Amino acid sequence: MASLNFISLQILVIFYTIIKNCESISTAIPPNIPAPSYNSPVPATPSDLPCPGPEEEPISPSPLSIPDPLAPAPDFYSPVSPAPSPFAHPSRGIKAAYWPSSDAFPASAIDTSYFTHLYYAFLLPDPTTYKLNVTQYDQIKIPEFIGEIHAKKPHVKTLLSIGGGGNDPTVFSKMVSSRTTRAIFIESTIEVARNYGFHGVDLDWEFPANVTDMSNLALLYKQWHKALVNEARFCGKPRLLLTSAVYYASKFIFDEPRSYPIEAIRKYLDWVSPMCFDYHGSWENFTGVHSALYDPNINSTLSTYYGIGSWIQAGVPPNKLVMGLPLYGRTWMLQNPDVNGIGAPAIGVGPGGGELDYSQILDFNIEKYATVVFDGETVAYYSYVGDSWIGYDDVGSVRLKIQFARSRQLGGYFFWALGKDKDWTISRQGKLVDCITLF
């Protein structure tokens, strides 16, 4: 009995040590608080949903019309890239976020302890020369960003992101159309990245418009990768990472059908980042969850489950997929305040002109005494008060999505964007999931 008590004491000591090493876990995962029932109102607080333990069953997905590509997948392909794998710890992977330099959120305020990779967003190519246009503003902001990040511990890798939602897609289309213009663009990206001390470059082309664009994008990836390899060998430095933010699914179903160049992605990119959000918005006349993990409509393709599955089914290795998570929500004005579920008729934009940052959503919910609902079918939250309706992610849904990414052996996740969180409430969830899975 004495020896048993000693062993029990040792186990408690180890357990306590792990808990202490996991930041704020004692307050972020409150004990003895039952999870809310699906589709039931929950308090409007950011940490009210306890994290499911590893022994709990995940929420059952709705069946889809495609074969299940999300069963635990084998290692389809070994990375072709000669650079060291970014997936140093496969159970934890990449925790990334974009920093929009034009926002008011300062680089000095970034807490790097929650991330492995941070993107500077964005630079744009000159529409005539195709060289990166480093404006006077960027000449101030980039050194500020790099200096702040490199000075902090833990150190994270920085990437220069090119494009973004505000880019002119026709400029990229013209740039990729010939080997000469691609070379000018590529050389410029390498020069800027090296001059400022970035660890990699990222392309966010929203979006290649047709089959020709997609074919030329493959040529860009191949030529870019070769240039990065040659430059690294010549300079004796580690090769710059090459990544790309992409549509949530491997194929575009709306407008002109076209598919991403899977073989080029598999061979030449370190990873791609599907933007798993904006499935719904105020452009529609009904409310919707804009980053649903699942969609109860069997014929719907608007879900992260479907999108990630399409990439794996197309042939991209799971560990080359870094899943996008939004730090903002979409809002509507309800047609009838008494009809306030997902899919309720709407007659216009809601608070914030159709979009609110996560921090703004929490403030709105508290100030307006909004009803907050966790929807188990979509794995998302929504809130409503009067004729205002907001669909968004909160602590509970983000934890489940990170666990989903891990269960599918994805490379990691990224957030759009820094400055939209509330006291790092969402950003820290990956770190807390790491702690939970130790037990």
From TrEMBL:
Keyword Membrane: no
UniProt superkingdom: Eukaryota
Keyword terms of this UniProt record: Glycoprotein, Glycosidase, Hydrolase, Signal
Domain GH18, first and last residues per copy: 93-437
Region (Disordered): 43-62
GO terms for cellular component: extracellular region
Record GO biological process: carbohydrate metabolic process; chitin catabolic process
SUPFAM superfamilies reported for this sequence: (Trans)glycosidases, Chitinase insertion domain
Keyword Hydrolase attributed: yes
A single GO molecular function term of this UniProt record: chitinase activity
SMART domains with a match to the protein in the record: Glyco_18
Stored Pfam families: Glyco_hydro_18
Family as reported in the entry's similarity comment: Belongs to the glycosyl hydrolase 18 family. Chitinase class V subfamily.
PANTHER family: CHITINASE, CHITINASE 12-RELATED
Protein name: GH18 domain-containing protein
Organism: Fagus sylvatica
